[in-house]
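Title: Prediction job returns without error message
Component: structure pipeline
Severity: low
Priority: P3
Assignee: unassigned

Description:
Job completed but the reporter wants confirmation the result is attached to the right record. Sequence as submitted:
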Amino acid sequence: MEELLNRMPEFENKIKSLMETIITNIVLLGQIPAPTFKEKSRVSAFLERLAEFRVDECTTDGYRNPIGIIRGTNPNRPPIFVVAHMDTPFGHDVDHNFTIKENAIYGAGLLDNSVGVGVLASLPAIFRHLGLEFESDIVLAGVIQSIGKGNLRGIRHLLKTWSTPIRGAVCIEGGELGRLNYYSDGMIRGEIKCSINRSGRRQRFQPNAILVLNEVINQILELRLPLKPRSKIIIGKIFGGLKHGQIAHEATLGFEIHSDSDEMVKSLYNEINDIVNGLGHEYEVRLELKTISNVRASRLRFNHPLVKSTIAIMRKLGLKPISEPSESELSIFLSRKIPAVTLGVSYGESYQQKSSVIKIEPMFRGIAQIIGVIAAIDSGVCDE
């Protein structure tokens, strides 16, 4: 491990010489719109880039996740997975043209997760440039249908159907450099839709869908949340109505429940369901509660060798690790008892906004840490 740590500054400097290749991949793939469920064009371009970099095998699984495999030197070693989700929050109606300046790249979907996909596609060239070989096969997987209503379907299918044990995994996100995710909260993401019956005689005073949802919010905020297990309910979005002078007949509320206890997540969801049923009856409106996605609570311990090795690598590169729960591909690996961490590539601004910005210079440290963690897994830190 000490030898690997001593090579980290060298990795960073050598990766800088591949700046043009890395930025080309970020721009080439990131400028292809890839909203959830419509990632096909980006998948095709991603596979083309892997083929151009001469990976040993280039294919898709039964769910159309694109996969590139770099064969290791020891066929008896389980593979190491490196993943990035292909989808972004933006569709074809959003301008995906990127602007490259001296110190930064600007464009929609950069941080979530076009930078991650571009770096993933660049890894074969980076490994070759650094002269790295691994005992394990390296599986480069761009997973589809990840965010929002995708509910991590791509990674769920990939791991469910993978036929061999997996040695460990690194999940790549565009931002933020310094993040170290090694645990996931239990989470349910839901929507509450209010619909007002517009048939029959027009009444002077009739329910307003937005105001009904406002009462739903009020009652959710009255719920008592325990300090332990740590729990929270996030009201994330609300929309509805047609115009300023007309009572809203439909409105939708989006929320998430988070807790490090799956039982508490379910309990809070049931309480929200009771609120929805009660207010629907009281206001004589149609209130529907629907689950959009969910993950189970799972984690590595702080003293797990993978976590300790990752922290050592980050500190060698002058990074201060910041750990928070991540309800992403990481949670699916951990729920299957596969050691994994999520790392960010660079610093940026306007996460999940059309005006996303990512800084170029810190990317090389971010990529170096990813290479270092892959090498650490290959050296055996996950084999206990």
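Comment from assignee: result matches the submitted record. The chain has two domains: 2-184+297-379, 186-295.
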